[in-house]
């Protein structure tokens, strides 16, 4: 171990780690696709104090923000097989619940987690759009849907975008916890490669580099998109 | 047949888990202490005149922001003893908590730097000039005028960073530290992996309660400190 870094292993494992990127990205994209609309709707329910839904959203956000994501992963990973199992035995489906691809659990956990965080992001962003905007839109004859699609959502998005960028980066980082679901993503692949020769330092340097590149790229893309959206920004800000 | 889900396990395991909260808190407190010191140094570098220092601080923050804590944790856990080996030191026997504290101090430092910087920048420059013009020394101006105001601004962000740290700290079990999560895993292992769900639920309840308590504490603190604050509305 004292002879320094094994450079050949370092380079080989870098590509092993890189091969886990599609899975990490798949989880990120699915989680965002579920969480963006759901988070927006629940944020609206929070603002408009919509019956039971806003209480539910409040407790939901508090739970997700109050517990570590690894514990959420453990809970989902140990509860869903039990639920599925009881359903399968009740209705006599032909299915082995313990053969489910772990990526489904990852989709569930990360969507569940991201939705709660996006509720808060959208809530604070929606609060910055003044109520007069909606009233003005309605007074010129737009329907509610049109008013939201053309007036409210673009303005909300501009304000929320930096926070959405942070959420996305955090999500990519959190996919490294997929190892707890035995998911074949960046961290686990490199770690398995390191198990052969105990080259852990090299493996973790590779993982570190892959995440660094991935997250910097995502941040850069968001910056570009932010520039394009800036035209919706309120002038009097 | 035994029941799959038994809620009594939740209640039973909470008293077993609580003593290990001490380890979690000890690690968190030391990380906050060292992390805040790192944060002050970074913020000073970022606000200072030296261009090299500013770039170094920016680079540090970007790198830390893009690294998952679990990767950083293992990098520290395997990296520091390897570096020590090359320098002829044997660091394999030091306590695992040390690695955890180093990791989370590094991470908390990056968070705190932004908190401190934004709080400092929110204070109008005229405040400092006014303080100096009535005859306070530089140190007095910072100590009595700038710092108390910046502190109030920083408080909510500090609270959020603290909660984030507490939750990232749950990963310490991965290198074998027996904190509250580590103990939960031990209990499950000794039950032959039965009733894992109940024990994880107990764990989440403990974390949830702590988080809510910290959140309330910071809200109270904020209210107490912003008593004397004059906003533009008062004019």
From TrEMBL, chain B:
Pfam family of this protein, just one?
BPD_transp_1
* Membrane topology field: Multi-pass membrane protein
Give the molecular function GO annotations.
Answer: transmembrane transporter activity
- ABC transmembrane type-1 domain location: 21-218
Residues of the signal sequence?
A: none
Task: Report keywords, A-Z.
Answer: Amino-acid transport, Cell membrane, Membrane, Transmembrane, Transmembrane helix, Transport
Family listed? Belongs to the binding-protein-dependent transport system permease family.
Q: What is this protein called?
A: Amino acid ABC transporter permease
